[in-house]
Amino acid sequence: MAPKDDVICIKTSAFYALIDEVVAHIDAKHGLPKVNKWIDIEEAMAMLKITSRTTLQEYRDAGDIGFSRLSHKVILYDRDSILDFLERNAQKTF
Question: Which of 29, 44, 76, 81 could, after both became Cys, cross-link 66 (CB 3.0–4.6 A)?
Answer without folding.
Answer: 81
